[in-house]
Amino acid sequence: MDENLDILKKNGLSVTDGRKKILDLFLDAEGALAHADIEKQTDAAFDRVTVYRTLQTFVDKGIIHQIPTTDNSILYALCKHNCEEGHHHDNHVHFICNNCNKTICLDDVTVPEVKLPKGFKPIQSAMVVTGVCDECK
Amino acid sequence: MDENLDILKKNGLSVTDGRKKILDLFLDAEGALAHADIEKQTDAAFDRVTVYRTLQTFVDKGIIHQIPTTDNSILYALCKHNCEEGHHHDNHVHFICNNCNKTICLDDVTVPEVKLPKGFKPIQSAMVVTGVCDECK
DNA sequence: AGGATATTTGCAATGTTGTTGCAAGTTTTA
DNA sequence: TAAAACTTGCAACAACATTGCAAATATCCT
Question: What is the spatial distance, in angstroms and rounded to an integer, between the CA atom of A1 and the C1' atom of C17?
Answer without folding.
Answer: 43
